[in-house]
Amino acid sequence: MRTVRVAGRNYGLQVVVLVIIAVALVVTTPSFQGESAVFASLERLTLVGITAAGLAVTMIAGELDMSVGSMAVLSGVIAIQFGDLGLVPAIAIATVAGIVLGALQGFLIAKLGINSLVFTVGTLILFRGAAWLVAGGGPVTLQNFRATDPLLERYGVFSPTSIVAIIVIAVIGIFLAWTRWGREIYAIGGARAEATAAGVPVRRSLVLAFMISGGTAALAGALSSMKGASATPDSFGSLLLTAVAACLIGGISLYGGRGDIINIVLGVLILSVLSAGMAAQGAQSYVTELFTGALLLIVITVDFVVGQIYRRRKLLNVRSHLVAEPAR
Amino acid sequence: MTVTTPSGTGASVAAATKQDRRMSVVRTASRWGLPILLVVLVVVATITTGDFMTFDNIRAILINTAIVGIVAVGMTPVTLSGNFFSLGAGQSTMLAATVFLVIVGAGSPVALAALVAIVVLVAVGIVQALVVAAGLNPVITTLAVGSIIYGLVTFATGGSVVTAQGADIGWLATGSFLGLPLPVYVFFVFTLIVWFLVDRTVAGRRITLVGSNRESARISGINVRTTTIWAFVMMSLGMGIAGVLSAAQLGQVTSGDLTSLTIDTVAAVLVGGTAIQGGEGSPIRSAVGALIIVILGNVMLLHGLPTGLRMLGVGALVVVVVSVLHVLRKVAAR
Q1: What is the ipTM of this complex?
Q2: How many CB atoms neighbour CB A226 within 10 A?
């Protein structure tokens, strides 16, 4: 009973929103049904899903990596420039670049003890500049077109990129829930002073968190650029917004320590279904952005109000216990 | 005992003065670092770059700074009040520009249209302030409001270009006095007004107090909600004015314009040295921050450096300045 209530409190709102959106879109859109609808929704996992899963790790650590959009651009450009080496090496090089830059960023944030929001605003500009440089000042296209053929295959409702996305999200979920380093990220996000006092190495956790957010953003950028066989240094402008929105709508707290992989999956699914359904309706991207913004505001407001009521009720409970048993 | 006490006191006095000296060095560095950086930048630029110290170039720099500077100055009270910054600055400014152009295009006087645009923005700002003061995170709130504004404006305009329909608004951008166009003067005057409001009025001092310690401000009887509203009103005024001026500069606007304004503005506030935790900073510093970023970009442009290197330079500047200021503050607090 208690687990049901906890699950309801943690995921209830998100599940309701997801069901409402999915049903509404399926009913109103004839072209958004069955296998093709599932495929289209899963396709959106590649960019937003992978990025959001990594971003969620920094949010759980109580930080925010504003540079993910620029990181995705930089890595997309790198992957295309190394396209001649073949599909997997190109994506691997780009992802490793993201991991290294992310780790460096995390190290500096931990070493300086600086607010990550402030620091990553700087690297947001820096990485985008680097992307322009690597691209040589304009859009780059893949010379070796055949290289990306494997990415365009389709297995039922899955594509190679959506399978990668699902694997990445699952690995991050396992890492957060069942490994010592994952639990330490919760600890420094939920109560940093207490975690430090208890001997949790804050620096290692921060390096790890930013390494993951940098690496996942890079992987997402590389995969989706390779799939499109081109990259533009000023693309992915709204990726940060969408990824942050996915995490928050899913129920990851910006104050750290709260949320798990189910929250990430729910948030990403809500936005994936929404944007895939809107695209099937023939709506333009601004409609999706409008709905994303509104949804974000609604979910955080409801969450805030429910949290207040919950806390008040808990307080009343404690108080009535105290009144009932004054002897103790 | 009688022998050791004086020497002990002497040692502690020496330690205290040493600490004081270190503190004052740190304080001087964080107070004068920014103006010194500006002067050094200008001197280096003048020496290395032939075309830098020409009137036309200085004029171009000031024009380029004006829009970002006005928004950054307006955003400073919000940062000071501990509410970080608006991640919807670009979209809000775009909204003001669109409202202004639509009303001017319908044939109403320029002053009335500008007023309506600014009033609309202030209304949007007050709504955000109420939400934020209730306890919701300002970064998320402004992010969400920004994407809602973008969606609604695109919906209303059909994503097409909005123009002034031939109405004469160009003078707002080009009308000049002593060789400098109107937006530059608006930037100066707006900076002085916001500085005066923040530094010399009760409502402004409350903003800083709420930012430096929200709880003690509340306990000493300051209304946090009213104070937050004041901060957001100043920000909205800046965005409204900047929107009107950029509409006049460009003569047209689409809902996808001004997207880079948000990050440029935040970068200006941060380089200016306003503390992200709130309670420390000044609108004038943000104006100088905006100026430094534009000058750096301008010098690199004059040297023929490509877009990528210029962005890289600005990004590196933000990272370094923000890190150095942070370390200085940490040393001062020790």
Answers
A1: 0.84
A2: 25
